[in-house]
Design goal:
Chain A is an all-alpha fold. Chain A has five helices and no strands. In chain A, 4% of the residues are buried. Chain B is mainly alpha-helical. Classes of the chains: A mainly alpha, B mainly alpha.
């Protein structure tokens, strides 16, 4: 009895299950996203571009710092950009009103 | 067809025997000494014929590193190691670099435009 059952179990596992497993992973591996030559070229270009822009930014920031050492503070100060300084305008208006 | 950056090559410049270990080090970015020691330990621990067979197969199958790739700077080599390890992460890195540049440029732009308006206001006051 055992002489029949064991081959019946083992043979399908060996000849169907195992190739199935192997091919399953082969197809998974084949369909996995891979970098093509085009992607690689694009990546290289973008990386180079980022590096060059970085360098340019650095030199511009250096020039700005040489011109005005605290330009960053002025750029970040909302009073200097968003809100106008109205004191001059209001005093002028008051003078006209008088 | 230019040389691909994401392939495994034998590194003949830093070779000890066939350049497989140096190639693995170049591909992954791990130090070559660690890979050599690891391979020797693996051979002694029990992979005796298999590590050597794998080494031979790799030496036989893998192409030698093309000359145009040999002249890359350390920074470029590091970049390509990152690409091989995880292209998605490298793309994210490059994107974050662009965002950083954008932010800095916006700062400069704010300063330039605001200093123009300040200058205009000062001229207005002088009238």
């Amino acid at each position: 009895m055992e002489d029949i059952i064991i081959p019946i179990i083992v043979v399908p596992i060996l000849f169907i299950g195992l190739p199935w497993l192997v091919f399953h992973y082969i197809t998974r591996w084949k369909t996995a996203a891979t970098l093509t030559g085009e992607d690689e070229k694009l990546m290289e270009e973008l990386y180079d571009l980022a590096r060059r822009l970085d360098d340019r930014m650095c030199s511009i920031e250096r020039i700005m710092t040489a011109e005005n050492p605290n330009w960053r503070a002025i750029a970040c100060d909302p009073a200097a950009t968003g809100i106008e300084d109205r004191t001059v305008a209001t005093t002028a208006a008051r003078r006209i009103g008088q | 067809m230019s040389a691909r950056h994401t392939r495994f090559y034998l590194d003949k410049e830093n070779k000890k025997w066939k350049g497989v270990c140096a190639g693995i080090a170049d591909y992954t970015g791990v130090d070559v000494t660690i890979i050599r020691i690891g391979l020797v330990i693996l051979t002694f621990v029990g992979g005796f014929p298999w590590t050597i067979i794998a080494y031979w197969v790799a030496a036989w199958l893998a192409p030698v590193k093309p000359r145009e790739l040999a002249s890359e700077t350390p920074e470029q080599a590091k970049f390509w190691q990152g690409v091989r390890a995880s292209p998605a992460r490298t793309v994210r890195d490059v994107r974050s670099r662009f965002r950083e540049i954008d932010r800095r440029l916006a700062e400069v732009e704010t300063y330039v435009t605001s200093s123009n308006s300040r200058l205009a206001r000062e001229i207005e006051q002088l009238r």
